[in-house]
Each structure stands twice: as C-alpha cells, then as structure tokens.
Design a protein that fits this description.
Blueprint: H1 2-12, H2 18-27, E1 44-45, E2 50-52, H3 65-68, E3 69-74, E4 77-80, H4 82-89, H5 105-108, H6 113-118, H7 131-148
Antiparallel strand pairs: 1-2, 2-3, 3-4
C-alpha cells in the first residue's frame, strides 16, 4: 500500500519507477528468464582479483562465494573455473520447477539468486524467499494500472 502511495506521487511529478518498467517488460514475452546478470552475463573483477557473477559477492568467505565466484585474476594470468561458470549460465526461472506455471515468471524471473542462497534454497529449482510478496505486489500494481491507465493494453 505504501508503494502505491509513492507511485501516485511519482506519477504526479512524472518520475519513472523500476517496478513499472519491470512489470511492463514482463508482460511482453522475452526469452531467458534471468533475474540479473548472474546467469553468465556478469564478469565482475573484485578489488581482490576475484571474478564474480554477483556484485554483492566479492569474497570466497561470503555466503554465496562458492556459488558466484568463478575465477581469479593473478600476476600469472586468469584462473577460470569453467564448470562453475557454466552452472551459472544455466540459471533461469524457465528451468525452476516451482516457477514454471507462475503468472509472474517473466516479471520476477525467479527472484534474486543471492537471496535464494542466503535463505538456503535451491538456486535452480526453488522460488525466491520473497515470492509470495512479489506476486501480491504485482497483482496490486496491475489493478492500479487498470484503474489509472485504461489504455495500457492497447498497442
């Protein structure tokens, strides 16, 4: 409810918001089903020389370090863990059994991979820890759009 209140204010001052973009993008089919660049698009070199798929994971000691870090830059070159990288490339909500029949599949895209790891959920099969809240928010937002933007579905 608080978000919708803020949304009304942002509409009044003509400011954009990320949820609108995500939902409208999700209403159009786009293949891939990735929540973020962790699925093989990110190649983040940390200050310590580690290569991570997640900008939140910068150390092997962190939760998720063994999942998202797939390389190391050293004076001798780059140590690249191809197996770890290829596992991340396969990360997609389209492959998550608990997401396949969800109406929000292409909006939430399975949720944040790191949040799944932090909550001890299966990165490749479980829904994210915020799944139910996201679905409720999307439904409320779609009703809001239907009330405030009657032409939104027209091309």
């Amino acid at each position: 409810e608080a978000y919708l209140g803020c949304l009304k204010i942002s509409d009044e001052i003509n400011a954009s918001n990320k949820l609108t973009t995500s939902i409208l993008r999700g209403l159009e089919y786009s293949p891939g089903g990735q929540f973020c660049g962790c699925s093989g698009r990110n190649f983040i070199v940390t200050a310590g020389g580690l290569i991570s798929a997640c900008d939140e994971v910068t150390s092997l000691d962190q939760a998720g370090g063994d999942t998202f870090i797939f390389g190391d830059v050293t004076d001798g070159g780059i140590a690249f863990n191809e197996k770890a990288y290829n596992k991340l490339v396969g990360l997609s909500a389209e492959k998550a059994s608990k997401c396949l029949n969800c109406f929000a599949l292409y909006i939430c895209r399975g949720g944040c991979p790191l949040s799944k790891v932090l909550c001890s959920r299966d990165l490749f099969h479980d829904e994210g820890p915020d799944c139910e809240g996201i679905k409720k928010s999307i439904l409320k937002y779609l009703w809001y759009l239907a009330e405030t933007e009657p032409d939104i579905g027209e091309a």
